[in-house]
Amino acid sequence: MKDQALFDKIDLHLIRVLNTVLTERSVSRAAIRLGMYQPAVSAALKRLRVLAGDPILVRSGAGMVPTDAGLRMIEPSASILRAAGMLFSDARGFDPATADTTFRLAASDYLDPLFLPQLVAQVKAQAPRCRIEIQPLSADSDYRAQLAQGQADIVIGNWAAPPDDLHMARLFGDEVVCLVAKDHPAVRRGWDAASWLEAEHIAPSALHPGAKGVIDEHLDTLGLARNITVRCPHFGLMPSMVASSLLVMTTGRQYCERFAAILPVAILPSPVEFPRMMYYQLWHERTHASNAAKWLRERVKSVASMLRKE
Question: The domain at 102-172+278-309 falls in which architecture?
Fold first, then answer.
């Protein structure tokens, strides 16, 4: 009964004030952002302090900072506001021109160096009030959990065999080629499978513990292993490393072609035959019927299609 009585005293307006004062760290700035008078925000904060049994926001020098309890309230309050915003918006339909939604996607820059910039540009042009949060795919991230828990709306990447417990849409396939410096010996002499395997290779860091990536997974099936001497978590920096060394980068042609135009590098065919690299967007059942999420997935599909035509 005690918890129910406390719950009955909380309304969505209070949650909005709570999140705003915590993120702005200022009652006056929160009042401006909320379109309220400062005394009204102060009164709401007083109610919140009584409900929480904690000051929530305290003075520190010339400013204010959240207490430990206040810090723990930031994300839950934001989550409540996001859920409230979606509660009826999808039922009414999604209007990008007026929507105030936060889109969350997990992606690497290996699809195409122009992909994420153009996706952001298209979303902001059509949905100017929406926010975008881009999260990296890394060994520390669990994209299945991110999708299931609402930390990501879609995940974009390439998998030899994408997981079958998520919804999936193919974006495109690409030929596997090798990127080397223009003065790499293989540019003049060519290479066979043996010399390619022995060359010094650069490869991305694993996206999760034990992962090898589509290139090395395929080599495994052939009983082969290449000589990887550099691992790098920053895919976008790897072509520059190749340009000033004898390293070999093996990935999709579309990605390599972007850098061949701006760096002293050359694209060579791979002497080992690979299946085409397939790029997908994945999403959870949680957002499958969401009009906002459907709109975002269409933007991803549109940008991927546009880049393939360039």
Answer: 3-Layer(aba) Sandwich (3.40)
